Amino acid sequence: MKKLQKSTNSLISIVGVFLATMIFGALIILMIGKDPLLAYSAMFSYAMGDVSAIANLMNRSMALILSALCAAVASNAGIYNLGGKGQIELGAIAAAVVGYKLVGLPLYIHLPLCILAAVVMGILGAAIPGYMRVKWKVDEVISTIMLNSVFFMFTSYLANYPFRDVTRWSGTTPPILDSATLPYLVKSIDLRSGIVFALVAAAIIYWILNYTNQGYRWKMIGLNPRFAQYGGVNVGKDQMKAMVLSGFLSGLAGAVLVCGSNYRFWEAIAGPYGWDGVLIAMLAKNNPIAIVAVSFVFSIFKNGALGMEQVASVPSDLTGVLLAALILFITGREFVSILFRRRKHVILVDEEVKQ
Amino acid sequence: MTTETLLRLENINKTFEGGVRANRNANLVVKKGEIHAIVGENGAGKSTLMNILYGVQQPDEGKIYLNDKEVSISSAREAKRLGIGMVHQHFMLVPSFTVLQNVILGYEPRQNLVFVDNKRAEKKVKEICEHYNLTIPLHSLVQDVSVGIQQRVEIIKAIYRGAEILILDEPTAVLTPFETEELFNICREMVAKDKTIIFISHKLKEVLTLSNKVTVMRKGETLVTLDTKDTTEPELARLIVGRDQLWTVGKQKKSHDQSVVLETKNVSVKKTFTSFCVKNVSFDVKAGEIVGVAGVEGNGQSELMDALAGLVPIDQGDVFFNGSSILNKSTSELRALGIRLIPEDRMATGASVKATIKENLMIDQNDCVPFISKPGVMNWKEIEKHTDELIKKFNIVAQGPETVVGTLSGGNLQKVVVARELSGKHTCLLVLQPARGLDIGASEFIYQQLLDAREANNAILLVSADLDELFLLSDRILVIYEGEIVANFIPDQVTPEEVGLYMTGAKRMTPRIGSSL
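ok -> structure tokens follow
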């Protein structure tokens, strides 16, 4: 009951933050002499005005959700995985290569193989810095960021040389076979079931973090690793597990990107998702449910940017302003609630004195 | 001693955020040239009252008169200007500066308005030292001098800045018996030369030795001010806690033919690649016995305990638990055997202050039935029930299992730690500074828990810098100095002063080990 109330509260505050951001953005648009209503209606109609726009929205959201979950699972356990981008690319190229190389398999074998390959590569990409951290105390913030470049170059090489689609200019693998694609959710608008994967993943992660002893230990390590160690928790082992799950999620993100919307590997396919995922995880304070909500808001702003520019001639860069405002308001919300809490205390004290 | 009233605090009220009323109508009258002790439990409002006097906190209501003129002390700087100086419990010194630099910091005499006039500074500080008969190595680095000297630096600093009234906040908490005696001499010297001292303490013996007047505080109120010569320790204790006896706990005599539970043989722990912080330590602890380890902080006792609890590796030697070696066992394996640590830093190690009480209680039992319902799945209902039980059993003042531990008072936080460690399987307790910073009531509760564990045949190793605590609880006392056990005593056969000599390295029973160890 309490948990439910907490969730509703956070939902209400997310809506509030969203509205505040929109009002702030409207003021900016007014200042540059444009019509905010027109701009916003264009933004929303581009982002979710028709069925194909919705399909795009879902496709962006699913990658953002998984990427954010990847960052959240790790940082919740006090180890930072900022290598989501590189790990997603590793996963994506694995899915793409398995998806076009293995001919003649039925869907129910081929697709799982693609996802498996992606997930294994994702885990590998996260386990390397995780192991270095746990074993040799190599700072994982630095190693994961640097590995982004390594994995980008590596996948770029693979897409340009061994697995290159010779009919294309550069930087892509050949399209995957039909037997490697995710099943359709709505066929007419080319919407496949990647978003379902993302939502199910978010639900499972939520359950793991809140109801299992593994999730409990991760939380304790994240809050105070000294205390966890003193309490007998094997901090290194648990952090390694968190990195593996984090890598699993980025591999899965790579797989749904290839098998669910792009149908092939493009160079830097994870470009728009890696860092936004880290940001979303921070804004959502590693809460999977909040991650889903923030990811959708992010996607609306990003997908609607072009509409604002074309219809209302508001530069699409305004999206950046909107996202910055969103970040300010989310962090500001904390500030406001702290102020509010203080006020409440003062009121309580007054009442006590009166009694 | 004159009878002129120097300082008067009238009806001071202060309420903190969250509704804690730290001071209610507190009154204080201090006469010139007296040593005025303020006693009371932790949380009685002593520190708040002093912080108000020193300008660090502002009262909600009340007036302060200095020489019969009302003053408003808006900041510490203002307090210094008015001639009020304070020596905090934790020193505010720059370790890498010399003593002289620390004394003049912020109030340096200038040469041509720009450069620090070191000569004039040294002359001025030397004058102060001579005037009050203080010896102090002006050119040593603060980090190289002992705690007692550092405190002296703080006192000189306050005088240098023109303090007429000096507030000493729990000045003896960090000192050995000898250093305490020296501090008292300094205090007497200063009041003889017309300074006034306000002395906060909860050690009644010291208050009775040193002060002229005692003000007792309880629950934010100033209960009464007495002439020290007209009062006694039992009377003060009764006023402070509201009952007759200071300590209601006491250990029962036991026969000592118990089996050895914990035994260390030549244990050494490295501090760096080449130096050791624990050197060749051998001792044993029997079942049903409390062995106290006395030592000035930083002499290797924390590292020794951490090593025994499996938190840091043991570099040489061996440790036996019920006869078998427990070298290289992990913390969780040691916990499973029943070896439990109550760490000295309860905020950083003993508890997770941002987590709730129920989460804090589960750190070592998160994969034990009944706290998991299926493998790997937490049974929060059962955990909450368990937490409620422990909250009741250990008298933890908290709203419930969901209370965030960081919002609890020090005593209740320690009770959470103790509740966790004593609710699991335990046969050997490693306890560090269990009552540090706790008031008498909470300390007594913790002591009783330890004595109950002793009755239940636990082997207890108790590290403390507080000799009263060690003498109260221990069956034997070991003294650790620079990482070595230099003496061992039976408490009835030795005085605290004697133990103090060993703590500071002035005496030792065992031959010194070469540094080449």
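Chain B has three domains: 5-241, 258-338+425-517, 345-424.
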